[in-house]
Structure prediction request, 253 residues.
Amino acid sequence: MTSTPTTTTRPATPWLRRFHPAEQAPVRLFCLPHAGGSASYYFPVSRALSPAADVVAVQYPGRQDRRAEPCVDDVRRLADLITAEMLPWCDRPVALFGHSLGATLGFEVTLRLEAAGITPVTLFASGRRAPSRPRENEHVHLAPDAQLLSTIRRMSGTDPAVLADEELLRSVLPAIRADYRAAETYRYLPGPPLTCPIVVLNGTTDPEVTEEEATAWTTHTTSACTFHTYPGGHFYLNDHAAEVIQLIRESVA
Prediction:
């Protein structure tokens, strides 16, 4: 007989968003946004997976309703804070999905969860090279505003409504710059690999991830590491949402 997840008392937190609560779901999926992204990016994922999975999206400080809060521009510090918020929600099997910066954060959070005795069902690492493959020539976070805005537009991951509103776009620049600083200054500290499976997802023409950089994720787990590629660039998942969501559903079933 399998046990049914039950409601537990958890503290209210500005870090986590449940758009479609599924308290009886057998698995909880934590979703971590890309640089400049917010929890609302995962609203469609939450809607599609409920009630099979209880989707919890992470909201970083410095954006949307947390805009007045200081940004955190260090991956390890951010991972510490996120893990502390997640732990009370780990009353059932958990999985993590992170895109771009979110994939690096997902890796660091998973390290912390496993150190606490919690082994996720799966870590989904999307649109990001392996932690052990830094690029030393990335300095977008130091660029003038105009160049940073150009990079954001080129990536095609920002809401068109935001891109069309120059004032709004500039108001979110501090959070975007902090996220890029976190992503570009992160350096992997060698240590024991994860024990949970890793599912790596990438776009075929993503300039941010080479095949070798993606393959290197295999060195970061003692479990299975599988790879899935989709036509498109860094935000391939915008055009292949249904396929990615189906992959998540099958992987955590």
Notes: The longest strand covers residues 94-99. The longest helix spans residues 101-115. The beta strands are 16-17, 28-32, 54-58, 94-99, 123-126, 198-203, 225-230.
